[in-house]
Specification:
The complex is a heterodimer of chains A (549) and B (293). With 549 residues, chain A is an alpha/beta fold. In chain A, 33% of the residues lie in helices and 21% in strands. Chain B has a domain of 176 residues. The chains are: A alpha/beta (549), B alpha/beta (293). At the A-B interface, helix 2 of A face loops of B.
């Protein structure tokens, strides 16, 4: 394959200690290669990047882009698609719809157009895995994968209840392989199952037992965190804590951090879990990010993504069934709810984040406090929990807020005085450097995910490269990269898609003791609506997939 | 005055979103003829379908021809006057913000859907979903006036948020479904489930035998005479609104030209009405006023 040289660009590759140095990059066979040892080897193509900024392609550690939940939201929100700018067919691309839940093809184009080349879907129930893979196969350009929901799975709960850790570990390994998933996800561990058993129920703290199983959220978190480590999964257990969005939930989040007892754990959309106040009184809502950040700073076993809220119209979608119901009650907007057999729940509600709302203003503040007070950028990732906090299309504006304290202050000025005057954010003058942005948007998520070929530009890395034109308006700069390469191919030039390629699906199939299968099969055939043999996703669904372990 | 006369009849629906006074009037005839319209999935020029004459100085546009396949006439307009001679297709005046539309003929579905302001006066019948919310939206019409002298179809004023809809003839089922606020006035007969899931607002049924059957979530509360109904009746007379359901009752009476006065008395506004309140499955602050016989 042809040899490409990108010359004279200012390279930000923090994983390899490169912080804004002028370098040449060489690409061959979709990978970054060392410069030819012979000095006079002519490249087949040279791209002059003088004055431009080069970073690895963006990596999104937590978004909702595929599967029945996303599809239900698409069907539920025709008005969102109608009001969004249309995604028209071009010579290279298909048409689609935008908005907070874009169609599959549009999702790929919009991410790539913004310089993101790897995206993980955060919550797929095993039963929905086949559907999710079908959609990911229709999501162009980006590399992708998903996390499989286990925190409310009946078989998991039964093994924890009986103390059979080895069987739990084998089941988790089997389930990852059956779903062709990348990591283990917990969503409101135990809480969704309580909601399914008891009208209006939920897990309000870590030691509230699920009636039918006698298992607590604490046990689920500890066991599955251990499983992720024992199976040597590249990514730690991915935890959506209990009590999302409720005032006063920060204590639950702190308990979750402590409950890990030194095990690795990734706490996702941490912004939604850092609130103070009385759970029964929205008026007492405030930020308690700081004590959590202090604990986080001192415990290197923890990683987080933020789940920043941005003002405007979006769609909340979650495997956290009781949360969907709560939002429906609070907002009065239309609501979708689902119960996925032995596995999980689901809730979808449209939401409009308003500057004038004290609660929404606090949410915006809490996210930024996390970004700006967390000391180690290698353990924090940029996310909006797309589309829950905002669409992924808001990332450039969030980067702008992080890099420009003046812009941040201007936006803070528009918020209610109760928030403006009491928040810690107004005293923070920290501004992110381009290197730090490169860390939280690509290097750190790739490292946290254990994607060794992503998020850096060292020799052997995938040639996923984003090249920005420096501009005074940082939102513009990050929204419209000058060039984007995916696997060594020029995909985006001046904001337009130049070629449609398809990325890989990443998944893990850890080894497990085959002796566990008969029991799983027996349980399955007693309880499920589909045949055991029809459940695992066949590799034919993922012909392009890269097998990562 | 600009005049657009149909030159070629579209075979499949023609999406003519550019036909609105605020867009056409500042342009020259040659510019207007090169504006884009969609004929099915083909992009074509407006001049292919319409011959354009005159100038837009007066802010007035007249469209004539067999327009029943032409969609989006006057959609999103913010000013000026659009007069349609003939029967127009779907989405006439959808999302309009200002100005006025007068239609001498019938119109298709989605008349004035999600409109924000301005006035639409249709002398014929309208299709379904007059002044409605598009599917998925929280609110339909948010302001302005829609007058239809003839009948209308199902779901008149679906999700109405503010403004006035008057239907001079009969309406189909679900008139005033999901109304958030605003006023709907119907002179003819109504279908099933009037005011289902209505939060606030008023539905007035002027016909003493409208066929109204209250939903079980409505409660009959009082017999009322309302000042605002008199004002509404007088205003409709001033607008020259001739509801078909009433004019059929007054056949043989002298015409407006002969008397120099509106033929309709505003007396319906002075009558007594039964007030039903509901919908108690929702907020329950809405009312349906039914002419007492």
């Amino acid at each position: 394959m042809s040899l490409i040289r990108i010359t004279n660009g200012t390279v930000y590759d923090p994983a390899n200690g490169v912080h804004g140095e002028i370098r040449d990059l060489w690409i061959q066979n979709g990978k970054i290669v060392a410069p030819p040892s012979e000095p006079n080897v002519p490249p087949d193509r040279t791209l002059d990047a003088t004055g431009l900024i080069i970073m690895p392609g963006g990596v999104d550690i937590h978004a909702h882009i595929a599967g029945p939940k996303v599809n239900a939201a698409r069907k539920m929100r025709p008005e969102d698609h109608r009001l969004a700018p249309p995604v028209r067919r071009t010579r290279f691309t298909r048409s689609g719809v935008g908005g907070s839940v874009p169609s599959t093809f549009a999702t790929g184009y919009l991410y790539a157009g913004m310089g993101y080349t790897t995206v993980m879907d955060a919550a797929i129930s095993p039963l929905a895995a086949r559907h999710a893979h079908e959609e990911l196969a229709d999501t162009p350009i980006i590399d992708k994968g998903f996390y499989v929901l286990m925190g409310n799975n009946h078989y998991v709960l039964r093994q924890i209840a009986s103390g059979n850790y080895a069987r739990l570990r084998d089941f988790a390994a089997w389930l990852l392989g059956a779903a062709k998933a990348y990591a283990i996800k917990l969503v409101n561990p135990g809480g969704v199952e309580i909601w399914k058993e008891v009208a209006g129920g939920n897990a309000t703290h870590l030691d509230e037992a699920i009636p039918a199983f006698g298992v607590t959220p604490r046990q689920i978190i500890q066991n599955l965190a251990q499983v992720a480590m024992d199976l040597r999964l590249p990514h730690a257990v991915h935890i959506h804590c209990n009590n999302l969005g409720l005032p006063g939930n920060w204590t639950t989040t702190l308990d979750t951090m402590k409950a890990l007892e030194g095990r690795r754990g990734h706490l996702t959309h941490i912004q939604f879990h850092s609130y103070g106040g009385d759970p029964n009184d929205q008026r007492t809502f405030c930020s308690q990010a700081e004590p959590l950040i202090n604990y986080f700073n001192e415990h290197p076993n923890l990683t987080v993504d933020v789940g920043q809220v941005m003002f405007g119209e979006t769609t909340s979608m979650t495997g956290d069934g009781p949360l969907g119901y709560y939002l429906h009650r609070v907002t009065g907007r239309k609501w979708f709810n689902a119960d996925t057999e032995m596995e999980t729940g689901c809730g979808i509600v449209p939401i409009t984040y308003r500057e004038k709302s004290v609660v929404h203003a606090w949410q915006w503040v809490v996210g930024l406090e996390w970004f700006l007070l967390a000391q180690d950028p290698w353990r924090i990732c940029l996310s909006t929990d797309h589309p829950n906090g905002a669409s992924f299309l808001a990332y450039p504006q969030i980067i702008h807020l992080l890099m420009d304290a003046g812009y941040r202050r201007d936006m803070l000025q528009r918020l209610p005085s109760r928030v403006r005057e009491r928040c810690r954010l107004r005293d923070i003058s920290r501004q992110y450097s381009l290197s730090e942005i490169a860390i939280i948007t690509r290097a750190a998520p790739a490292r946290i995910l254990g994607l060794t070929n992503k998020g850096h530009l060292g020799v052997g890395a995938d040639a996923d490269i984003t090249i920005y034109q420096p501009q005074a308006n940082l939102t513009e700069m990050f929204a419209h990269p000058r060039y984007v390469f995916k696997a060594g191919q020029l995909i985006v030039e001046d904001g337009e898609i130049r070629a449609e390629v398809f990325g890989k699906t990443h998944y893990n199939t850890p080894e497990f003791d085959q002796a566990a299968l008969p029991d799983i099969q027996r349980w399955f055939e007693d309880h499920y609506t589909i045949q055991f043999a029809n459940y695992p996703v066949d590799v034919s669904y993922l012909e392009e997939a890269s097998h990562s372990t | 005055m600009l005049r657009l006369s149909m030159r070629r009849e579209p075979v499949v629906p023609l999406e003519a979103e550019c036909v609105r006074p605020d867009v056409l009037c500042p342009l020259s005839v040659a510019q207007i003829e090169t504006l884009t319209v969609w004929h099915g999935n083909r992009e074509e020029k407006l001049g292919e379908f319409f011959a354009v004459q005159g100038s837009g100085d007066s802010g007035e546009v007249h469209v004539e021809g067999v327009l029943s396949k032409v969609k989006w006439l006057g959609a999103q307009m913010s000013g000026g006057r659009l007069v349609i001679h003939g029967s127009a297709g779907m989405h006439v005046g959808a999302q309009m913000r200002g100005g006025s539309i007068e239609v001498y003929g019938d119109v298709g579905d989605w008349l004035g859907a999600e409109m924000r302001g301005g006035k639409i006066h249709v002398h014929g019948n309208a299709g379904h979903l007059v002044g409605s919310a598009y599917r998925g939206s929280r609110a339909g019409m948010r302001g302005g006036v829609i007058l239809v002298e003839g009948s209308a179809g199902f779901e008149v004023g679906h999700g109405l948020r503010r403004g006035l809809i008057v239907i001079g003839g009969d309406v189909g089922d679900f008139c005033g479904v999901n109304v958030i606020a605003g006023t709907i006035c119907v002179f003819g007969r109504v279908g099933w489930r009037v005011g289902a899931a209505m939060k606030r607002g008023s539905v007035v049924l002027v016909h003493s035998e409208s066929g109204f059957q209250p939903l079980p979530t409505y409660r009959k509360d009082s017999l009322v005479e309302l000042v605002w109904l008199r004002l509404l009746a007088r205003q409709l007379c001033q607008w020259g609104f001739v509801p078909r359901a009433l004019s059929s009752m007054t056949q043989g009476t002298p015409t407006e030209q002969e008397t120099g006065e509106p033929i309709l008395s505003a007396s319906w506004g002075e009558q007594r009405y039964w007030r039903y309140c509901g919908d108690f499955a929702e907020l329950g602050k809405g009312e349906i006023l039914v002419r007492a016989s």
